[in-house]
Amino acid sequence: MRVTGAAYPPRLSQRCTADIDISGEQIELYCDNELVSQTSFEQLTLSDSVGNLPVRVSFPDGWVFVPEQNKDIDCLLQKKGRKSLRIRKIESNLWLILVSIIFCVAMLFAGYRYGIPWFSHYAARMLPERVPAFVGEKILEQLDEQFETSHIPAKQQQAIRARVDLLQQQLPPMPFPVKIEFRDSEIANAFALPGGTIVLLDPLVELAESDQQLDGVILHEMGHVYHRHMMTRLVESSLTAVVVASLTGDTSGVVHQMIGAGVFVMNTGLSRDMERQADQFAKQAMLKIYHTSEPMAAMFELLRQQRHIQHMPDWLSSHPNFSERIESMRQP
């Protein structure tokens, strides 16, 4: 079998018209019809064939042969275990490349949108109890750099904690014991940490006009604890970070990823779906304990007024807008 192409002498860029003669296991190279090199098939070296790029056939003495068309040496490629002509055609097919790109993007999107949340939901429930407790403690330590010591009187703090103990007795079993912490800040807010800790900020406690209004907020945060929302989000954020770090080669400890993600989530909030789920948990609890969810609607009214004072638009908030939440609380 004779294949036409071009040849390059050892360590020279000079080009000459050449042929190779393939006879069984023996390969002979002819440059301008003169035999310049020969070798056995085992000693022959072929470059990788990518798309339509020419394959370089290297001889042990340094001669290099480049065929006019890769298909002419397809038999050599197959013997060397390289890509066949059919595979090279697939690699150079623009439509197949485009379809492959779209498929990969779709798989990445599906994994991020559905796969990671699904896995995070179950992984958060499989973690040993000491992991959420440890992560929650570390997140609170970091958040304490932003907060001040609470100014709520100790007697009032004790009364709130005692009331929460009574609430827990009338609710479904919590995955973690609920612990109430008080901190001071400029914002009326409350949030639940992994491990069952709920932090109440002084402006929120002072804003509530009744115990039932404050209990509505606490029950909302207990809904996050019950559904393990915080841990689910942390696993999801950490898993995403670990995947990205693995792809980029910049890896670090998963626990540190969780703590860093926890501080970020506490500052940006949970998803709106999680907030709605916690609202429904609180509403059902209010109806069971107080036979009305109106105190929660009233508390949302007070928080909406605070939000307007702070000039924060709804689209910047991770929570559903207050009109939706108030209407939900007042629906039968």
Structural features, described:
- This protein has 332 residues and is of the alpha+beta class.
- It has 3 domains: 2-84, Pleckstrin-homology domain (PH domain)/Phosphotyrosine-binding domain (PTB) (PH-domain like); 93-126; 128-330, no CATH class.
- Helices cover 53% and strands 16% of the residues.
- Strands 4-3-2-1-7-6-5 form a 7-stranded antiparallel β-sheet, with no helix packed on it. Strands 8-9-11-10 form a 4-stranded mixed β-sheet.
- The longest helix has 33 residues, at 94-126.
- 30% of the residues are buried.
- The model is unreliable at 309-317 (pLDDT under 50).
Total count of helical runs of at least 4 residues: 12
Which structural class do the helices and strands define? alpha+beta
Largest sheet: spatial strand order: 4-3-2-1-7-6-5
Strands, total number? 11
Q: Which percent bin holds the helix content?
A: 40-55%
Roughly how many Å apart are the termini?
87 Å
Low-confidence stretches: 309-317
Question: What series of H and E elements makes up the topology?
Answer: EEEEEEEHHHHEHEEEHHHHHHH
Roughly what fraction of the amino acids lie in strands? 15-25%
Mean pLDDT: 81
Q: Profile the largest sheet.
A: 7 strands, antiparallel
Shape: rod-shaped
Radius of gyration: 34 Å
Total number of distinct structural domains: 3
